[in-house]
């Protein structure tokens, strides 16, 4: 299930995008008017820096931010509900989607408040062996070899909750535990549950996906610009900007030449007058 929250370019607070962790569906009049650029993201992903950079650089482009669950993160692209989607791996990109990996998420175990295992700062997966894993065991590689309920065949034949919020509700009721990325543990934090880092579980990854073939040239250009922001391109950088032609190298100046002096006009020496002889007294 996906919840839609439309943010207009001018509706940012203090120059930053307002984060919608539990957005409510927008009124029908707004949801039927498609946005100029549509960003989808799986729950737990923080869009702060990327969403803010996009809206600051494109204040006149009406942009929508759609949060949803993992099971439909591919569909929003294939049915053209979104232009780009932040997804949680593993993700089937097929042959029609681009995908780049962005960062890893730390796995956390969520237990009911007051559980004895919460006294430690970290909990090993093996320490949870005697408890019931609420989510699908396939989501936690290695649980089938560690969990007592899997080894002895005593796991209750119950469907796993479709939503993380429902799984956390069962944890609060003391039914068992769940292992989720740190972002989801914080997103669904409540007074009657606590989370700790769990070891022995591989971290999950977040990536961004978009369509390989985009029929709308304008949307394709906006997708390219947004992917550039995600990759760290600044507002002043542009792959299409022509480089200035290099200036011709300045000619090297030789040593400064002294201006030639005009020869002094020839002046012949005047002959000396013979000294007059003084007559002595007779």
UniProtKB/TrEMBL annotation:
<feature type="compositionally biased region" description="Basic and acidic residues">
    <location>
        <begin position="240"/>
        <end position="250"/>
    </location>
</feature>
<dbReference type="Pfam" id="PF03466">
    <property type="entry name" value="LysR_substrate"/>
</dbReference>
<comment type="similarity">
    <text>Belongs to the LysR transcriptional regulatory family.</text>
</comment>
<feature type="region of interest" description="Disordered">
    <location>
        <begin position="13"/>
        <end position="33"/>
    </location>
</feature>
<dbReference type="GO" id="GO:0032993">
    <property type="term" value="C:protein-DNA complex"/>
</dbReference>
<dbReference type="GO" id="GO:0003700">
    <property type="term" value="F:DNA-binding transcription factor activity"/>
</dbReference>
<keyword id="KW-0804">Transcription</keyword>
<dbReference type="InterPro" id="IPR005119">
    <property type="entry name" value="LysR_subst-bd"/>
</dbReference>
<feature type="domain" description="LysR substrate-binding">
    <location>
        <begin position="52"/>
        <end position="228"/>
    </location>
</feature>
<dbReference type="GO" id="GO:0003677">
    <property type="term" value="F:DNA binding"/>
</dbReference>
<feature type="compositionally biased region" description="Polar residues">
    <location>
        <begin position="13"/>
        <end position="23"/>
    </location>
</feature>
<feature type="region of interest" description="Disordered">
    <location>
        <begin position="234"/>
        <end position="282"/>
    </location>
</feature>
<feature type="compositionally biased region" description="Basic residues">
    <location>
        <begin position="269"/>
        <end position="282"/>
    </location>
</feature>
<protein>
    <submittedName>
        <fullName>LysR family transcriptional regulator</fullName>
    </submittedName>
</protein>
<keyword id="KW-0238">DNA-binding</keyword>
<keyword id="KW-0805">Transcription regulation</keyword>
């Amino acid at each position: 299930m996906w919840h839609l929250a439309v943010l207009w370019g001018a509706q940012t607070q203090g120059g930053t995008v307002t984060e919608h962790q539990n957005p409510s569906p927008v009124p029908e009049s707004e949801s039927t008017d498609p946005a100029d650029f549509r960003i989808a993201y799986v729950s737990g992903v923080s869009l702060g820096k990327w969403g803010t950079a996009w809206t600051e650089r494109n204040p006149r482009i009406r942009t929508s931010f759609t949060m949803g669950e993992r099971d439909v993160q591919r569909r929003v692209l294939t049915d053209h509900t979104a232009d780009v989607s932040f997804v949680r791996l593993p993700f089937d990109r097929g042959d029609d989607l681009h995908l780049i990996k962005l960062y890893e998420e730390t796995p956390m175990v969520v237990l009911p408040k007051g559980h004895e295992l919460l006294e430690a700062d970290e909990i090993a997966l093996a320490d949870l062996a005697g408890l019931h894993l609420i989510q699908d065991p396939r989501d936690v590689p290695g649980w089938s070899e560690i969990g007592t309920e899997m080894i002895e065949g005593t796991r209750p034949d119950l469907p796993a909750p479709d939503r993380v919020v429902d799984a956390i509700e069962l944890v609060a009721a003391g039914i068992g535990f769940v292992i989720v990325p740190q972002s989801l543990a914080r997103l669904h934090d409540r007074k009657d549950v606590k989370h700790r880092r769990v070891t022995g579980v591989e971290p999950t990854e977040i990536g961004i996906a978009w369509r390989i073939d985009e029929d709308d040239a304008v949307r394709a250009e906006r997708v390219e610009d947004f992917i550039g922001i995600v990759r760290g391109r600044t507002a002043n950088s542009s792959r299409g900007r022509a480089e200035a032609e290099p200036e011709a190298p300045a000619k090297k100046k030789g040593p400064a030449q002294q201006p030639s002096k005009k020869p002094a006009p020839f002046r012949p020496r005047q002959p000396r007058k013979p000294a007059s002889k003084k007559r002595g007294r007779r």
